[in-house]
Specification:
This is Transcription elongation factor GreA/GreB C-terminal domain-containing protein. With 156 residues, the chain is an alpha/beta fold. The protein is 29% helix and 24% strand. It folds into 2 domains: 52 residues, no CATH class; 64 residues, Roll (Chitinase A, domain 3), CATH 3.10.50.30. The chain starts with 27 loop residues before the first strand and ends with a strand.
Length: 156
């Protein structure tokens, strides 16, 4: 029989399981972000210890490897002064005639629905280094963003 027609098992036809991709660049975190990573690791370890289906446990172990790597590589950033827009600040700004408030945090802590964006996001990068009452360029437009207020982000 030709090798082309031989099939040893179903394993060779399953989707490959890849590790969760690590965001490029430094792994900067706030104190809150570092705490959340630790809590996630604790929760995953408890789920793995509880046992269950092999595929589910393998998925949990993959997630655990990701979060352990993020914990090991975490760079806890100093608390900002709030004088300029930087990592760990909360910024109130006007963009397109609409006022918004966002906190600039690490990649894993980012949650746009809760007004937290990653320091690597284009909007954050555009504002970093700006002071209150300063206008900055964004999306190819000069003076697109007016920085209204800056404060150090409260840890919750």
């Amino acid at each position: 029989m030709s090798v082309a027609f031989r099939r040893d098992g179903d394993e060779e036809h399953l989707e490959p399981k890849f590790e969760i991709p690590i965001p490029p660049g430094p792994n900067r975190v706030t104190a809150r972000g570092l705490r959340l990573i630790g809590e996630t690791i604790d929760a995953l370890e408890k789920q793995i210890a509880a046992g269950g289906e092999e595929a589910a446990i393998n998925a949990l172990k993959r997630d655990l490897r990701y979060w352990q790597t993020r914990q090991i590589t975490a760079e806890l950033m100093p608390v900002p002064t709030g004088e300029t827009v930087e990592f760990g600040t909360t910024v109130t700004f006007a963009l397109g005639g609409r006022e918004r408030t966002l906190s600039i945090v690490g990649d894993d802590e980012a949650d746009p629905t809760n007004h937290r964006i990653a320091f690597s996001a284009p909007l954050a990068r555009a504002m970093i280094g700006a002071e209150a009452a300063e206008w900055v360029a964004f999306n190819g437009k000069e003076d697109a963003i007016e920085v209204l207020k800056i404060s150090a982000t409260e840890a919750d």
